[in-house]
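Retro notes
What went well: the complex prediction finally ran end to end.
Inputs used:
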Amino acid sequence: LARSRERAAFLSSAGYLVAMLGGAAFAMYPNLLPSSSDPALALSIYNAQTGDYSMRVGLLWWGFGMLLAVGYFVFIYTSFRGKVQQSEPDSTY
Amino acid sequence: METAWFVLVALMLTAYVVLDGFDLGAGAISLFIARTHQERTTVFRTIGPVWDGNEVWLIAAGGAVYFAFPVLYASAFSGFYLPLMIVLWLLMLRGMGIELRSHVSHPLWWSLFEFVFAVSSLLLALFFGAAMGNVVPRSTAARRWILLRSLMDGLSCGAKSRHSRLVHHSHRLARCCCARSSRGALRDAQDHRRGECPRPSRRGNPLAAVVSLTVASLVATLYIRPDVLANFRAQPVGWLSPCRGGRCFDRDATLFGSQS
């Protein structure tokens, strides 16, 4: 691993994983849990969904929740960015 | 609307795999790349601030499934009860390993929790791989959508023929190893990014492993579920995803290849 290209290596590994999982999800759609005995018994997004109203309300709250979560992630990853020092005084970890 | 939720759940699970992937990988290889106490402390520090935050995405995905697809949540949780309990215990052991390690300053104590942390991380990656390998090809859904499948089912002689069971297992194994090795690779990258990795990790040829596992799991999947490609045929735009994966993999290949 070329030391200078750590970021690229990390990103391409992550990209590989994302793409493979994305492909798997695409292949599954619209099934959530395929059945081995009878395709009619498989759980798909159509027979497992909740009501339309709760989906819409949920989407709204999901938006708020995700704002919080993403904001927190940006905050924590930027405040701990950079390399770990080996000579730091011993702390919790 | 249900399609939107399908996409969102898939998105959150992917975020979980990528984010928790690197700290699982950190745990799984921590015993091998870091030998001294200080080096191991560095590994713990690398993931220290973020490891439990990364698990938020698993919880969020679970919550979204509970809310948007309650029937799936109900049948999956009762059907996969034993594996889920194992995953839960592994998650707890891992957390204990990280949190309790520094509480007593004694080499025996350190090495105990380093071991707990490493083993549970490795097993978690394996179990997530097994879960993926179980869900994607098939799961035994009986009447009323009550799932009968458990981990033991896979090991006992069921209605399935011996041969297909064998393929199923090898397929599952391939999936696990695939997930595992790419996580290891991810982790290596992360190590280097933080300027850690005190010793060069002695890996043989990670590339060949990932390539062969990808191909093997793909062939096994196609053998078990030939209809898996139907969506790709119907909507050619879906090919973008694996192709992008291939391109990323190419870059991966050149980057990691220069190491060995």
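What we learned: Chain A touches chain B through 69 residues (CB under 8 Å).
What to try next: split runs per interface for comparison.
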